[in-house]
Amino acid sequence: IITYAVISIVPVLIVGILSFSISNKKIVDMKSEMVEKEFANYAEKISSIFKDVEDVSTSLFANEYIQDTLAEDHGFDAAKKSEFYNKISNLSIGILNTKKAISLINIFGKNGVQYRSQAYTTDLFFDYETCRKYLDDNDIKGISIWYGSEFINIFNSRRYNIMHIKVIRNIKSLDELGILILSIDETYLRSIYGSSGQTSFIVDDHGKILSHVKDNEINNNISTEGYFGKIVKSKNTEGSFLYQTKTNRFLISYSRIKGFNWYLVNFIDYWSILKESSKIRNYTLLIITLCLLISISLAFIITRNLTKSLHRLKRLMNKVEEGDLDIRFIKINNDEINILGENFNKMLENIKDYIKEIKYQERLKKNSELKLLQAQINPHMLYNTLDSMQCNIEAGDIERIGEITGALSTFFKISLSKGDMIIPVWQELEHVKSYIEIQRICSGRNITLKTELSEQVMKYGIIKLTFQPIVENSIIHGFKNYQDNGIISVKVQDSPEGSSLNIIIEDNGMGMLQEEVEKINMYFKTDLIEDMNKPFGVKNVNDRIRHFFGEEYGLGIESEFGSYTRVNIKIPKITI
To answer: Which of 70, 161, 538, 539 is most buried by its number of CB atoms within 10 A?
Structure first.
């Protein structure tokens, strides 16, 4: 067993370790390549934004009206300043609407005219003198400079802004006329690169963080960090490398922003990259454990291989004895036990075929019994009707004979129904109406039929001759020696669960004692038909429903002596 286990485990262990190491390197390389491409694309977008801002700055710098107005050094009253503000405002609105990255446009003239594009407040500058002092204090030199990030309160929202500062000079004399400042809201840049959920930021070549996914990191200096020196010294415009801190390890990817000595940098936790690789390690350990268990198990399996098939066959036979004929013996090899198992399968197939044949014959028998039960209903009623017709013929009442004949014709037309066992509810209702009409004419009884059912349930199917035997039972037994007008109501409605129909046929006849009701309901649950003291026609209806739909369907009787009798019928909902 030990030898077998070692042979099984050692190769798996070696393959697992190699796979884990190779997959780690492959996953990190793939992640590096993916992030490099992603952030190179971000850097390209940011570079394009900066270029757009510089183009707008150059356009405003060269604007003839701005040059001429800032070149004037006297005569600026309130009207002149307002005119300058309005003209530049129209120009500014067009720029801000088309260049979404620009948050502010400021023009501070040396001669006192100025324009500020947004409702904002800042302690940095508010006119030419304070703006010039801001540049001098921060050692910002040159004609066109990017600088940031600074807090500016725009529309009561305090945000970091990266500013593009351009000194406006007279195109002819090169004298300084004023200062132009265009600002980019730092959050606009962050929306481009900061959606990955990782630690990302923009840093200049001096290590100052200009934009960061965390506000509290902006303007921090990382020039002393080892990874920053590695980025700046690299001659590549983009790249990735692993960096180890005291507490963690990171994959750092960077991309230089074209046209600037700025970098877009991204940090990814190294171990988060290797989550999938950790799964491989866990699977390897699991496989080794399984191999050990399998190796041990095989030692036992081999020793009892000869008796295994026999035990399986014995268990299957026990299940067959319990009534499960769907099981099968699975052949593994060609030994005697497996051949016996094949013969066992054939025997089960033969038994199932034999049972199917028996069930088929039972269904034929049941259908024949159902038709016989249905045929038993009509002769009794036909005999009574013909007897009544004979009496009317002898009395010479031709008109009444015609009425009886018409009602009888309708009655038997529906009874035949072209041989269909299932007819619509509305047709069954017409059938019972014709029966009541025959009874009214033949016996002279005043019987009223009330119905309560919707158009929807009228279209469902029902076994024909369901209503008539029950109504006949009400007339013969319920209204026996009854002096008042007889009322029979028929109500058809959906069951609460929606899969069946509940039918209630109720009369206001003499009713029954509770003891008799219980006996009849018990009688309905049996297959006996010989008890002539019980309502044979109603029992016939119950038997046909149970034969056709199953034992969960059928009839139930409720009654109160001297008050009513109610027959509850449950049948499945059949669409025809």
So the answer is: 70
